[in-house]
Amino acid sequence: MKTGCLVVLIASVCSVCHAADLPRSTPEAQGVSSPAVLSFVEAIDQVDATNSFMLVRHGHVVAEGWWTPYRAAARHSLYSLSKSFTSTAVGLAIAEGKLSLDDEVLKFFPEDAPAEPDKNLKAMRVSDLLRMSTGQQTEPARRADEPWTKTFLNHPVPLKPGTHFLYNTSATYMQSAIVQKVTGQTVLDYLRPRLFEPLGIDGPTWEMSPQGISTGGYGLSIRTEDIAKFGQLYLRKGRWQDKQLVPAGWVEAATARQTSNGSNPASDWDQGYGYQFWRSRNGAYRGDGAFGQFCIVLSEQDAVVAITSGVKDMQGILNLVWDKLLPALKPSALAADDGAAQKLAQRLKALAVRTPESISERAEIAGRSYVFPANDLKLETLSLERDAADGHETLVTRVDGVEQRIACGRGKWQEGQVAWGSILRQPAAAAGGWANEAFTAKICFYETPFIVTLQLRFAGNELTLNSETNVGFGRTKQPELVGKSQ
Predict the structure, then answer these.
(1) What is the pTM of this model?
(2) Of 46, 68, 49, which Cα lies nearest the Cα of 412?
(3) What is the tens place of the pLDDT at every residue in 377-389?
């Protein structure tokens, strides 16, 4: 590659860099095939549910992309990928002598213990929480009307701790509560000077329980690059630049197979579990969260893959990593390939969540207001306004007495603040279009995996509304609503 082209490419890739972020490089300079990475990107783009992707090789970012309206500067909900950060807090607290793996869980919360704890509960240790081997056969609830620690300790423990794997988010919450008990700080605050600040992770947020404790098993939001930094820290055995942030022994133990969780060789969820890290196929390990939030560490290849997404098939995403991306990682530097690197960079820059097609319109609908009977969405009225200047539509809704305007770009994403259903008001982008006598709007909550699709069909004085979210823990499709014009 010519020197001038190399400078232009790296400058383009670094346009979203922060001062404390990872260095950038062309793929071939780090032994990565640009055509192979491009094949991966094209394959994962077909899923139409990826939010971001970053590949780090030999400590350098060699490929990165965000599907507009997702962007590099935005934090993203990690869901259970948060567990790996909570585990790190436990490891640091152990290193500081504040607790040990063998501490009994009951000793930290005597006030929440049952009057006569059984032998299995008495035997449960911090290591059992970390390994998801608490001896419980079902996950304890987390309700607003009782301290979560009390609910956990009063939940049946029919099996001997350490003998049975059960993925248990409440067990991770207990780790967070223990760290707060012994340090006097939430996991978020405890990790700030020890992990987040040294890594240059700015403005992390973490959801809290009603008792003011970081939720631990979920709730952390950081940037995609921050996920990659965390993976790079673990890849380097806890060392960042010239400082050992996390003890190497903890990194090795946390990412090793601490318990068996299955035997299917084709499943990345059957390869064993560490201390809040999953073992993976191909000698890798990872932290992961619901709907496809991944921090994948490939130690043998000296690489880290960070992915955020909103998918139902998480195994499908990992299959693409193994089938398409893993072969791109070569043992030594490759000859410069100007054309391939530029093509990859251009493809990554052009990534976008698909907007609704627009092939027709119904101008007579503009401004007409429709009233809905009582419903779960608490939607009272809806009207559709058309902007004469650029042709985009604005959904005007009244939900539970509050009016909001959702500007829907035509073939592009329009920024705003939106609330819908159980999704609280937050940054979002919307796009819409007319096709087959229906108006379709997509609302992308780009700090989360969630994208809501609304379909509005008009007939006479009636509006039929269908609302569906791409992913969710329960029902994703709302009951059909029918409103009548005033």
Answers:
(1) 0.94
(2) 68
(3) 999 999 999 876 6
